[in-house]
């Protein structure tokens, strides 16, 4: 399938800006740009909008009335899926893992504001968490069908082959923008992006191979097992290429995952992430989040201090969103 022939809805603002981080670059002694995918323009913004443009186009093609997805209670993905569903006139249905707080804040507040139908899902000690959530989503889809509706399920994190095409296009967009920069030489550019369910990283890799561009990606893991993530990233990237009619492979050495900044567990703040968030706020006036971009920036800072970024120019930090999490974590971001 030719990429530009795939059904796509226009849900965001493109291209997202590529911003030179003048002060941060001088603090870290390497040229850093921010790819502002927090400015995708839907809901509170973020990377999932690129995926949802393709997924909800498919939902529309299939005549969907309801969009179901899953995530943690404070999932950025769930919030953006709810926002996208509303934009195309579908009912958002969210299966959220954990316990709903009495006082809704952060993404949950936004989910409620959008009138999403929210189902709180307790962990099943007999089943892996994702299987539990997938079963709940299947049950919700059956209920919708029984009432005459047409459900469309967007998988956890919006990671599937259709969604990853959004990040193939991001590579094309970024490549064009890099041609116009004057602040740094283009000599082995490097992208640094937080990786959770791996779809963003996979789409970027597929894009790099599809367009044959000189660009490397480091995915900074924020959860889970690195080997499983590497395999999933490669698999989704290869399948994305196949969808585009491209038979090329993804070489193993292209799949790079940095996993030293996960911290104790998913969603738990680290001291390094707090420092990174404060540094970016105080040098560039930009807001990173404590769960994804804060940890990815902590990894970038660490690599810069170790001199590991010297062979790359520029360093492009993929600012993937997560603003509502800042308000959820509140004062804990301020501890010095
Ligand atoms: C702000 C933010 N950054 C990065 C990611 C990671 O994207 P992916 O799940 O495609 O790896 C997410 C996923 O939820 C996110 O919300």
Can you describe this structure?
With 336 residues, the chain is of the alpha/beta class. The chain has 2 domains: 3-47 and 159-333, Rossmann fold (3-Layer(aba) Sandwich), CATH 3.40.50.1100; 48-158, 3-Layer(aba) Sandwich (Rossmann fold). 42% of the residues lie in helices and 14% in strands. The chain has 11 helices and 10 strands. It has helices at residues 22-28, 48-61, 76-87, 106-113, 129-146, 161-178, 199-211, 226-243, 271-284, 293-305, 323-329, and strands spanning 18-20, 32-35, 66-72, 91-97, 117-121, 151-153, 190-195, 216-221, 256-258, 315-318. A 6-stranded mixed β-sheet has the order 1-2-10-7-8-9. It has a 4-stranded parallel β-sheet with strand order 5-4-3-6. Helix 2 (48-61) crosses helix 6 (161-178), helix 3 (76-87) runs parallel beside helix 4 (106-113) and helix 9 packs across helix 10 (293-305). It is globular, with a radius of gyration of 19 Å. The model has no long low-confidence stretch (mean pLDDT 97). The structure holds pyridoxal-5'-phosphate. Pyridoxal-5'-phosphate binds next to helix 3, strand 7 and helix 7.
Key words describing this protein structure:
336 residues, Rossmann fold, 4-stranded parallel beta sheet, 14% strand, binds pyridoxal-5'-phosphate
């Amino acid at each position: 399938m030719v990429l530009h022939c795939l059904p796509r809805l226009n849900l965001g603002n493109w291209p997202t800006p590529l911003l030179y981080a003048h002060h941060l670059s001088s603090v870290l002694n390497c040229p850093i740009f921010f790819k502002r995918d927090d400015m995708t323009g839907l809901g509170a913004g973020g990377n999932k909008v690129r995926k949802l443009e393709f997924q909800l186009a498919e939902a529309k093609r299939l005549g969907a009335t309801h969009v179901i997805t899953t995530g943690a209670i404070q999932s950025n993905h769930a919030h953006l899926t709810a926002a996208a569903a509303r934009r195309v006139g579908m009912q958002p249905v969210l299966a959220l893992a954990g316990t709903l707080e009495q006082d809704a804040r952060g993404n949950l507040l936004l989910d409620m504001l959008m009138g999403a139908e929210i189902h709180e899902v307790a962990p099943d000690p007999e089943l892996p968490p994702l299987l539990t959530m997938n079963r709940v989503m299947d049950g919700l889809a059956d209920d919708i069908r029984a009432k005459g509706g047409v459900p469309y399920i967007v998988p956890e994190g919006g990671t599937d082959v259709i969604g990853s095409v959004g990040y193939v296009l991001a590579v094309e967009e970024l490549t064009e923008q890099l041609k116009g920069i004057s602040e740094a030489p283009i000599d082995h550019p490097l992208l640094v992006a937080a990786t959770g369910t791996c779809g963003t990283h996979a789409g970027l890799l597929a894009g790099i191979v599809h367009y044959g561009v000189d660009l490397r990606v480091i995915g900074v893991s924020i959860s889970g097992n690195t080997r499983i993530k590497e395999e999933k990233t490669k698999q989704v990237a290869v399948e994305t290429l196949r969808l585009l009619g491209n038979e090329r492979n993804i070489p193993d050495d292209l799949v790079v995952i940095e996993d030293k900044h996960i911290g104790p567990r998913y969603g738990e703040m680290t001291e390094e992430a707090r420092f990174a968030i404060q540094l970016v706020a105080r040098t560039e006036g930009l807001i990173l989040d404590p769960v994804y971009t804060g940890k990815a920036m902590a990894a970038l800072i660490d690599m810069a201090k170790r001199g590991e970024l010297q062979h790359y120019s520029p360093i492009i930090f993929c600012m993937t969103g997560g603003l509502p999490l800042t308000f959820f974590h509140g004062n804990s971001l301020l501890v010095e």
